[in-house]
Amino acid sequence: MTTPALLTRMIMAGQGKEPADLVIRNVGMLDVITGTVTVTDIAIVADRIVGTHARYEGKTEIDGTGRFAVPGFIDTHLHIESSLVTPLEFDRCVLPHGVTTVLCDPHEIANVLGAEGIRYFLDSAERTIMDVRVNLSSCVPATPFETAGAQLEVDDLLPFRKHPKVLGLAEMMNFPGVLNADPGILAKLVAFQDSHIDGHAPLLLGQGLNGYLAAGIRTDHEATSAAEAREKLAKGMAILIREGSVSKDLQALAEILDENTSAFVALCTDDRNPLDIAEEGHLDSSIRRLIAMGRPLHHVYRAAGHSAARIFGLKDRGLLGPGWRADIAIVDSLEDCRVSDVIAAGRIVTPELFETRGTVAPVGLTSVKAKPVTAEAFITEPKPGQNRVPVIGVKPGLILTFREEASLASTESGLQPDLTADVIKVAVIERHGKNGNIGRSFVTGFGLKRGAIASSVGHDSHNITVVGATDEDMAAAVNRLIELGGGFVTADGGKVTAELALPIAGLMSLKSFEEVAHDLHHLRDAAKALDCVLPEPFLQVAFLALPVIPHLKMTDRGLFDVDKFDFVS
């Protein structure tokens, strides 16, 4: 809280009449509006910048000689759950990469635990060093075509509406519900007309897009081509360039970021795990890649901070100047965006700083209620007269899937995988203890020659998804996952070969992000040993069950055609 005494101190320190709390001395400060770099001191009192373009004295000083100061980065859309660690561990993992603000949608945990999951995230957000803002999950469940663990109507969201960490309504995934004026969807849209409403409209164009935007929706992170993004920009929609662990759209969308559009473009990760963060970085990775691709440097940094703040109504951050929030990334090189120091709300980020936050009790430790299965659970019977079957087609780096077909042999054990054609089984097992459904089909693109991969991360309802070459290995992987209370498991020859327990709602680990990264290394190696060709197989498995992303998806109720928004007959 800014008191008269504190505000007086800020004013006096800005004039150089008394020392600042913190001074970054002799640093090259990037102006993201003009692109100029000025060597200057930056003076900070409490959480606010009070002076630039001058010489200052500070109680604490950082030597910025030869380095550059840029506004702290803002991840405009992500699910912290997909980092596989708690919000407090995510804070410790990502803040050192210069990400000082994140706008999260606790959609994943909300689909498992409902309001309890949202409350857990808000409690965590009040303790993190980075500024974690929450958009309230708009689509729980995402569709009526799968079994979720919870259901949130507008009256369930309104008690959180005035929480200081809440921005608005999260990604409106059910765009058919918007276009058809579904009463439940309309109630949520009406309740949040005076705040931000986040979009989610893959491949939606033309008059359908117009109708969607007429609901007051302003942003989209689902554009996967420059042409799609340009139409959305032309209609007043801000585009969030996404580069996650599975959804990698930066290469396709980079060309849209220029001096004319940068005010309407921001960056996001959506879903990124700690192994990728350790190996590649977070938004800092997107920034250096965009610059390397020839995007204008200060416009890239503008999109990463200032534009993101303006798009989402965060009026106090995104620039380095007196009166602005002291969220600052200090980089060794503007081109390489290698972050060497971070200031978050005026605090120097150090390992010791994270020890001051306290703890938040875990939730959802008994959320996996599925019963053990046998190999017979995965027998897929042919339909009368069926010669060819629909197959989900997976491609690396895309959560879009494709509709393909295959001719499969049939035995007394039902339709059989065709490993020579890279066609294996996929199943989704309801895990919330509601009906015990099992949906079964086939998928191509994994490359498995044997074994199975199972996951309790299964966007968005988070049932158990398993792919495999044999029914026995699928059963072994699923049963071990149930014993763990959620997680990732690989199996081969009827035995578990690697695992990662995710007991918090079947989504997040109780371990540190370093330990999770280590376990993910082991899991990746185990998947490669099955001849898996996907670089990120576990999240790719998780997105097989997402029936709001085209084109063909698997749910616990059966194979789903997203284009028709109905089950495959």
Automatic annotation (TrEMBL):
Catalytic activity: adenine + H2O + H(+) = hypoxanthine + NH4(+)
Domain Adenine deaminase C-terminal, chain residue ranges per copy: 399-565
Cofactors, names only: Mn(2+)
Keyword NAD: no
One Pfam family named in its UniProt record: Amidohydro_1
Recorded GO MF terms: adenine deaminase activity
EC numbers: 3.5.4.2
GO biological process, one term: adenine catabolic process
Segments forming domain Amidohydrolase-related: 69-349
InterPro entries given in the database record: Adenine_deam, Adenine_deam_C, Amidohydro-rel, Metal-dep_hydrolase_composite, Metal_Hydrolase
HAMAP family, per database record: Adenine_deamin
Protein name, UniProt field: Adenine deaminase
